[in-house]
């Protein structure tokens, strides 16, 4: 019996994720020539100190930062077109946080973020969240104007072609997971996966959604269909570092 695909509702992230994603984005954002700069990011701080709660938090922070980077030009245009930027109460040093949180806000269809009970709140995140949410109607309208202007059905249209091609290729490649043999054995992983509805097959050519194979050359490596990426990353096996994504 095949399992239904789990739909992950986008509720936003804890404050610490935004803080770390902004620090990462600050170091990787595209620098523009002085005559073309309209959005200013303040000075780059070298090797910012980041405290990740766990491996999941690290992955999500980097993912959020790189998604923001992909759409940097679009996000800046939305801020300018909606007249949300410049905002003189928000210093240039927090512009990265502003852009990161804007990406997440539009990704949630401009819906309010869920606050996690156990999270530690950060004043700058709360300030920027409230500011962006107060402009949500103008921001959504600016996004709609951009899509009309560029005849784009979705924001994926705005990804540079070279990155889009890389993502298309990557999305079709199988996923390779190392078994952390310091924590679990192949037999226990197999048992756990079978309890969750996965079926072992002989090779990649036999894949049929909830299936996996043992690598022919490395018997502590499991191979899965690319379509299962999000579900696999939400398994306890991954969260507990018993399976490590290659």
Automatic annotation (TrEMBL):
InterPro entries given in the database record: NSUN7 (IPR042620)
Gene3D superfamilies: Sun protein, domain 3
Keywords: Methyltransferase, Transferase
The keyword Methyltransferase is annotated on this UniProt entry: yes
GO molecular function, a single term: methyltransferase activity
Transport keyword on record: no
GO annotation terms (biological process): methylation
Name this protein carries in UniProt: NSUN7 methyltransferase
């Amino acid at each position: 019996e095949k399992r239904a695909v789990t739909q992950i509702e986008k509720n936003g992230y804890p404050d610490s994720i935004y803080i770390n994603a902004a620090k990462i984005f600050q170091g990787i954002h595209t620098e523009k020539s002085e005559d073309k700069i309209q959005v200013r990011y303040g000075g780059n701080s070298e090797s910012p100190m980041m405290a990740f709660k766990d491996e999941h938090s690290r992955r999500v922070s980097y993912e959020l930062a790189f998604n923001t980077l992909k759409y940097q030009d679009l996000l800046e245009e939305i801020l300018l077109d909606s007249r949300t930027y410049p905002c003189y109460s928000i210093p240039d040093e927090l512009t990265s946080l502003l852009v990161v949180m804007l990406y997440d806000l539009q990704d949630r269809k401009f819906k309010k973020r869920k606050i996690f009970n156990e999270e530690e709140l950060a004043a700058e995140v709360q300030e920027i969240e409230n500011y962006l949410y107060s402009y949500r109607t103008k921001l959504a309208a600016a996004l709609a104007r951009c899509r009309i202007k560029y005849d784009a059905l979705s924001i994926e249209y705005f990804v540079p072609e070279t990155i889009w091609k890389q993502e298309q290729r990557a999305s079709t490649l199988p996923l390779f997971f190392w078994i952390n043999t310091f924590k679990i054995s192949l037999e226990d992983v197999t048992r756990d996966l079978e309890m969750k509805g996965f079926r072992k097959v002989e090779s990649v050519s036999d894949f049929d959604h909830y299936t996996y194979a043992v690598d022919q050359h490395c018997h502590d490596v499991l191979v899965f269909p690319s379509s299962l990426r999000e579900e696999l990353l939400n398994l306890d096996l991954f969260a507990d570092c018993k399976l490590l994504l290659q």
